[in-house]
Amino acid sequence: MTSPRLRATPAGAPAGVAGHGPLPRLGLVSPDWVLLAVAVVAVSASGPLTAATAAPALAIAFWRNALAVAALLPTLLRRPALRAELAGVDRRTLLLSLAAGTALAAHFALWLPSLRLTSVASSVALATTTPLWTVLALRLLGHRRPAAVWLGSAVAFAGVVLLTGVDLAVSTEALLGDALALGGGIAGAVYVLLGAEVRRTTSTTSYTLLCYGAATALLLPVCLLAGAALGGYPGETWLQLLAITVVAQLLGHSLLNRVVRGLGPSVTSTSLLLETPGAVLIAALALGQLPPVAAYPALVVILAGLALVIRGERR
């Protein structure tokens, strides 16, 4: 039985995901780019939607996964091929999918509560270290990333810092929030890497059902132990939870799971840095909040970093 872990490629071998060959070439006309753009816009709306939802952070994390699973179940019932695929999932794929769901649950459980302990700037900056951890993990697994990928990841993250600023407070509560946000960024990298591996052989729908199902099952006891109310909300809050599920989870995370197979984990995770300026611009359009002056140059810097990552991966 193959071990359920990411396998490293031999030194000097073409760097693919988990040792299964070279990464696909990133054609500029690929539909994946359009889907990635939609996904980035969708996850950018997650912050404003979450901030407007009057429910505990852990409860939001639980419901966005649980409602996503509920939304996918009719597809499972209508498609015999999907049921057959899930029934035939091997042990390694199942374990990797469950591990990805665990990482996703950890990402939400750590990052969302951090927003209430430390400044939003610190939380966002630390949570968006995902691409840096992704590239580092790939290197440790034996995948030699081009210098442009390392440089692009650093440049893109610098754009986030430019927008959010460096605001590390020294209070115990703020330091705890910073630690939670950093943990959320690391968990996000694990989620992206595991998803890239599973998606090599598994359809997007099968993977998301397994992953979101695992996240839901893990977040439920966490909410109960933390005393986070899972019900008793007004109708407006339930509508907001549905909006978060449809936009951020189904259009955001599910499309990211769709494109990671073709674009690779480095490009996919680096593109998530666009979530920060995207959220600022969405707030400006939807709420009439004037973006800070730093939003526009930060967006340019992040795009420049992403371009470097894409160029490095294509080479």
Strand content: under 5%
How far the N terminus sits from the C terminus, by CA atoms, comes to 34 Å
Form type = globular
Instruction: Give the ordered list of helices and strands.
Output: HHHHHHHHHHHHH
> If helices are DSSP runs of H or I spanning 4 or more residues, what is the number of helices?
13
Family: Belongs to the EamA transporter family.
Pfam families: EamA
Protein name: DMT family transporter
Transmembrane segments: 33-51, 57-77, 93-114, 120-141, 148-169, 175-194, 206-231, 237-256, 268-287, 293-310
Protein described:
The chain crosses the membrane at residues 33-51, 57-77, 93-114, 120-141, 148-169, 175-194, 206-231, 237-256, 268-287, 293-310. This is DMT family transporter. Pfam families: EamA (PF00892). Keywords: Membrane, Transmembrane, Transmembrane helix. With 315 residues, this protein is mainly alpha-helical. The protein has 13 helices and no strands. Helix 3 packs antiparallel against helix 10 and helix 8 (147-164) packs antiparallel against helix 13 (295-314). It starts with 30 loop residues before the first helix and ends with a helix.
